[in-house]
Amino acid sequence: MRTVVLTIAQALVFLLLGIALGCGVNAVRTKGHIDIGRDYFTPPTHGDPGTTKPTSQPIPYAVLTFEQLVQLYDDPKRQTGEYLFVDAREDEDYNAGHIPGAIQCDHYQLDRFIDNVLQFAAVAEKVVVYCKGGDCEDSLMVCADLEARDILRERLFLFAGGWDEWSAKQMRSETREERAP
Amino acid sequence: MTQQPGLIRRIDATGIPLLLARLGVGGMFTYLAIMKLLNPIHFLKALRTYGIMELVPYWGCNLIAVVLPWLELTCAVALLLGIGIRGAALLINGMLAFFTPLLVVHALELLHAGKFAAFCAVKFDCGCGTGEVFICPKLAENIALQVGALIALFSASRRFCLAALCACCQGRCGTSAPPAGMVPTAKSSD
Fold it and tell me: A62-179 has which CATH code?
């Protein structure tokens, strides 16, 4: 009996230590910080708030094929900012390579990026958002973030193939260093 | 008064099974915890794919993503050092018993969705910190870890543990572990 009580007491001590360390470190870390009070997975303007598991619900934004994306990429309007490309992946992936000219907007660190993205998106005719591709939903989240900040749904486009398809077709890429002035 | 102990007790009394279990489970959990700590957002996304958010509110899921890697690390370090072994092993057993069935359920969901031809061909990022893995080797790994954690939970030996070493330094060497070939008259504890 004494052993059982001691074991449970030890487990409680470790549990409290884990909670203290987790919350303490999370409070001071900038990279990888999780806002406990933020619902990361319920799109702010649409979607069923009760559905918190990834589902195959219809995507509420126009989805571009690779060919359609290349057309937009080659269009001179991309150079003038009328077509805006937004990369919804995290720092490490974006830094390693992204579609040339794309600006980053990580849904999980929205405060860091949203002002910059809105500045360009507000004047863009079309905003194309992509992430890794496949099951990745980060681009969908960023579209919802932008729509919630008054970017019209009709101007938002998703490239479902994402970075995986772009890089698999050996298209040009750009690292963060190359993008930096 | 002594009696001849069984084979399992005699093997356990050598301290070798516990030492191997501590190094295996402690080492693996240290690695997995550090990988999660390097990218907690990635771990949070993985929690969502398991459907945990249908069981707990979003803030609970966020809290799990923040706390669990540190809990794993704390327990792993305790096992490696040999401090509070039973408490650490109890928590690790609990974590494995909770997440291993979720792994199976998620793999079955992917299988039924027609994404893979056979159960063992199912490959996905389990959020464990090791990237995309095939389900069968992952399950084998989890079962091995569970066995190790159970050994750590139920072993009566305290040889090679920090507490036993400290006792040795104080001239009470061997008092924290039952002598080989003998059954302890009182149950040992951490």
Answer: 3.40.250.10
Domain ranges across chain A: 1-30, 62-179
pLDDT for A47 equals 40
Q: B87 and A8 in contact by Cβ < 8 A?
A: yes
- 3-state SS track over A95-131: HHCECCCCEECCHHHHHHHHHHHHHHHCCCCEEEEEC
Question: What was the pLDDT predicted at A49?
Answer: 37
pTM for the structure as a whole: 0.81
* A58 DSSP 8-state letter: P
Condensed to tens digits (0 to 9), the pLDDT of residues A38-96 reads: 988 876 554 433 344 455 567 789 999 999 999 999 999 999 999 999 999 999 899 99
The candidate with the shortest Cα–Cα distance to A120, out of A85, A158, A94, A164, is A85
Alpha carbon distance A5, A102 (integer Å): 58
Chain A residues touching B152 at Cβ < 8 A = none
Contact B15, B159 (CB under 8 A): yes
Report the gap between the CA of A170 and the closest CA in chain B (Å).
23
